[in-house]
Design brief:
- With 442 residues, the chain is of the alpha/beta class.
- The chain has 16 helices and twelve strands.
- Helix 6 packs across helix 14.
- The longest helix is centred in the first third of the chain and has 25 residues, at 113-137.
- Bound molecules: nicotinamide-adenine-dinucleotide (NAD), 6-O-phosphono-alpha-D-glucopyranose and manganese (II) ion.
- Nicotinamide-adenine-dinucleotide (NAD) is lined by residues 11, 13-16, 40-42, 45, 85-88, 90-91, 126, 146-148, 150, 170-172, 320.
Length: 442
């Protein structure tokens, strides 16, 4: 009999929470759960989603204990897995992250460029706080973190809590692999074996094979050369028009670097001018998400509460949540699944900073993860990654030391920013907007 798990979702008020709960309930055979808890620091926001989850759980798996709380002790006691999805500053601050750089004709994006740096400066403290709560109340648990910006958060946890049981992950490669699998008419991305390297939201596939070892790269490239990743997108946000632009960009990204297959996030660095030219400075992705996903999920949950049933509510499990649960499953039951994780390089990429947090395939089992050796990488990717990782490391140093100078350098270092002067203008606006969240910079 499999041991049953207690799962805490931190950031219980997240738009992803009902989908994750649904996926947990649908996977009880492979990943049995005895308890689901939600934790957030916004009581009211969490309450609506939690009351709806309570109904869903009572209908689908009444044996599962459920509670939601804003109290860390209650939340973190008796937990096996913490699934963390904080958005520090919520969508109101995402909007600032996107709009402030755009004012200066610089990419305005949640996790890339100055916006990502600003978000990083907000996320570091609260994610460290989650680790500390977990270590205090459930020291044997694992923290599966996808709170963004995952690259900066991962570097911060490496620096500040080097021995903690945190694993940082991202769903973008998973989504793109699902597209590739569908293009190839395979049943699922799990029918492919991939090699990939880079930083979070900054990477490349070098090999994609089927389970018999046959190379599938050429077939996928042929398709991407014509259509990017615009076809066969799995259900969810990546189907929306604003995401399609990134999916289309894959075509151009492949022209720039034809040996590998690109992660769409490279668009913000290699096609920054086009990205800015197509942006609406008054209505960014944050506005879209507030008007769509956030509104919709709260409406759905309010309806579930009003009707007293989740019958026909339309909440579905997603690729995003299955990936997180696959990781928990691998750790709990030693599945040895190969998964892309954000881990300390330590020589896996031979000619790259050993201390960089890189995104590479790892074998995951009961004792954690074992990174796979990626060997030496070419000059183009190496150069880009060195610049980006320097920006991420400077951000974390700026947070630790409270250093204005280092944060200015971090923003200057981002390939999305044209000059140190523009970096300073953006930084000064970001400081003003983030007063409530950032350490004081001297
Ligand atoms: P959301 O704003 O709906 O949810 C975030 C929740 O975190 C909110 O309820 C908020 O109150 C809570 N929160 C903020 N600060 C907190 C703190 N200090 N302690 C406890 N709770 C806190 O956001 P969302 O769009 O659903 O996204 C949630 C997070 O998941 C974001 O960080 C997003 O970037 C991330 N995400 C990451 C990936 C990935 O690939 N790594 C994929 C999808 C989403
Ligand atoms: C992808 C990325 C996540 C990011 C999300 C944003 O899934 O991997 O890291 O948070 O996109 O999506 P959104 O719909 O909020 O713009
Ligand atoms: Mn991601």
């Amino acid at each position: 009999m499999k041991k049953k798990n207690s799962v805490l979702i931190a950031g219980g008020g997240s738009t992803y929470t009902p989908g994750i709960v649904m996926t947990l309930l649908e996977n009880m055979d492979e990943f049995p759960v005895r308890k689901i808890k939600l934790y957030d620091n916004d009581k009211e926001r969490q309450e609506t989603l939690a009351e709806a989850c309570k109904i869903i759980i009572a209908e689908k798996a009444p044996e599962v204990e459920f509670l939601y709380t804003t109290d860390p002790e209650e939340a973190f006691t008796d937990v096996d897995f913490v699934m963390a999805q904080l958005r520090v500053g919520k969508y109101a601050m995402r909007e600032q992250d996107e709009k402030i750089p755009l004012k200066y004709d610089v990419v305005g994006q949640e996790t890339c460029g100055p916006g990502g740096i600003a978000y990083g400066m907000r996320s570091i403290g609260p994610v460290i706080e989650l680790i500390d709560y977990m270590e205090k109340y459930s020291p044997n648990a694992w923290l599966l973190n996808y709170s963004n910006p995952a690259a900066i958060v991962a570097e911060a946890t490496r620096r500040l809590r080097p021995n903690s049981r945190i694993i940082n992950i991202c769903d973008m490669p998973v989504c793109l692999e699902e597209i590739m699998a569908r293009v190839l008419k395979l049943n699922s991305r799990k029918d492919m074996e991939v090699r990939y390297y880079g930083l979070n939201h900054f990477g490349w596939w070098t090999s994609i094979k089927d389970k018999d070892g046959n190379d599938l790269m050429e077939k996928i490239k042929e398709h991407v050369r014509l259509r990017g990743y615009t076809e066969d997108i799995p259900a969810g946000q990546h189907k929306e028009e604003s995401w399609l632009e990134a999916m289309r960009a894959a075509k151009e990204l492949l022209e720039i670097e034809p040996e590998t297959l690109p992660n769409t996030y490279l668009k913000y660095y290699l096609m920054a001018d086009d990205t800015v030219a197509h942006a609406n400075k008054d209505y960014t992705r944050a506005n879209e998400v507030m008007d769509r996903r956030e509104k919709q999920i709260f409406e759905t949950c309010n309806k579930i509460i009003k009707d007293g049933t989740s019958e026909g509510c339309g909440i579905k499990s997603s690729e995003h949540s299955t990936y997180i649960i696959d990781l928990a499953k691998a750790l709990a039951y030693n599945t040895k699944e190969r998964m892309l994780l954000i881990v300390e390089n330590k020589g896996a990429i031979e000619n790259f900073d050993r201390t960089a947090m890189v995104e590479i395939p790892c074998i995951v089992g009961k004792d954690g993860y074992e990174p796979m050796v990626m060997g030496a990488i070419p000059t183009f990717q190496k150069g880009l990654m060195e610049q980006q990782v320097a920006s991420e490391k400077l951000t974390v140093e700026a947070w630790i030391e409270g250093s204005y100078q280092k944060l200015w350098q971090a923003i200057t270092m981002s390939k999305t920013v044209p000059s140190a002067k523009v970096a300073k203008l953006i930084l000064d606006d970001l400081i003003e907007a983030n007063k409530e969240f950032w350490p004081i910079l001297k």
